[in-house]
Write a structure and sequence with these properties.
With 351 residues, the protein is α/β, with parallel strands linked by helices. The protein contains twelve helices and 13 strands. The chain is 37% helix and 18% strand. Helix 2 runs parallel beside helix 4 and helix 11 runs parallel beside helix 12.
Length: 351
């Protein structure tokens, strides 16, 4: 996103009160998420649940007198952080959120795992809390049930398996640590059976797509991963990413050395995630497991097409959550909501 696009987005965030401001998270650190919630409270934002949002959109309220400051908090993927950090803080501040989960990644388990409340009570160390993110990266159905019963969390679909595939040789980024030192590109790490984190830092991330929306995938040669990972290890390993210009250094090193890498190849995607199963079956599973209507869908990688929108409409979805770039649906009657990345919340301080 260039400076001009960021400027337009900032204007939309600060000046447009006709619609609720919808924010997109995957996970967050306790102090960061707490600061966001406190800012929303100080600025007197009304945080909407999915049901309240549906009612708000159906009314199509745009008149000046009824305008209020409204926000929606959404979390994609159903990562463990939603249980260990996000849910305890939602309870502390009595704020609602919407979780979009991937049914094939949600575990069957009768027990629940430690969270921030256990840490506050001294029942678990911070290190053990952190380690659960590596051992059990996604939520369990039991945890989702508990969170939903609290009345603070509503659970909807983010596709059946969220299969992500590279589609070109163009490198868009490099694998690097995020919250709790987990990989930022979670899908690539998870789909590769969660290799040791020390072996993934610096691996090229190629232009990618949600599998149901593409026919061919690029299969990169692993030599580039190894080569870039060795460069990171020689330059501080995990601490390499503390440098302000780490991404620039990796792109420069990659460009200088890319002729040394063996080229990958393209293959036709025959056994890929099916769009019908992602849209229809994920809805059925969530409704069966949690005994609730699943009327919201979050687009994987913010990707879509007219055929997918038609399928979503036929499946009974009402609200579709997208990314920051605006799209128009002309022939399918659905509510399509754009979301601001979570860090944009801090700019609400200027309202």
């Amino acid at each position: 996103m260039n400076i001009f696009d960021k400027g337009k987005m900032l204007v939309r965030l600060l000046a447009d009160n006709r619609h609720p401001k919808v924010f997109s998270f995957h996970d967050s650190l306790p102090d960061v998420f707490s600061s966001y919630l406190e800012l929303l409270m100080i600025k007197r934002f009304r945080i909407l649940s999915a049901q309240e949002l549906m009612e708000r959109l159906s009314l199509n309220r745009t008149d000046e007198k009824n305008r209020t400051k409204e926000a929606v908090l959404t979390f994609d993927d159903g990562r463990r952080n939603c249980w260990t950090v996000i849910f305890p803080l939602l309870k502390k501040y009595k704020i609602k959120a919407i979780f979009f989960v991937i049914p094939e990644r949600i575990q069957e388990a009768h027990e629940t795992y430690p969270n921030l409340e256990d840490y506050w009570k001294g029942k678990v160390s911070w290190e053990n809390l952190y380690l659960t993110h590596r051992k059990i990266p996604y939520l369990t159905w039991k945890e989702l049930e508990i969170m939903q019963q609290s009345g603070l969390v509503e659970v909807f679909s983010h596709s059946m398996s969220h299969e992500v595939v590279p589609v070109s040789t163009r490198v868009i980024d490099f694998q690097h640590p995020g919250v709790y030192e987990m990989p930022v590109y979670f899908d690539e790490w998870f789909q590769n059976r969660m290799p040791s984190l020390e072996c993934v830092w610096g691996a090229p991330i190629y232009e990618r797509s949600w599998a149901p929306l593409t026919s061919n995938a690029y299969v990169p040669n692993a030599s580039a991963d190894v080569f870039m990972n060795e460069f990171v290890k020689k330059n501080g390993d995990y601490l390499f990413f503390k440098k302000k210009d780490w991404r620039k250094l990796l792109f420069e090193f990659y460009e200088i050395n890319k002729k040394k890498f063996s080229l990958g190849h393209f293959r036709r995607l025959d056994n890929k995630e099916d769009a019908y199963a992602s849209v229809v079956e994920s809805k059925k599973i969530i409704e069966k497991k949690l005994s609730r209507s699943c009327f919201c869908f979050s687009l994987p990688l913010y990707q879509s097409n007219l055929e997918l929108f038609t399928l979503l409409k036929e499946a009974g979805y009402k609200i579709i959550f997208d990314g920051p770039e605006r799209k128009k649906i002309t022939s399918v009657k659905l509510f399509l909501l754009n979301r601001f990345p979570s860090f944009w919340i801090k700019f609400l301080a200027y309202i």
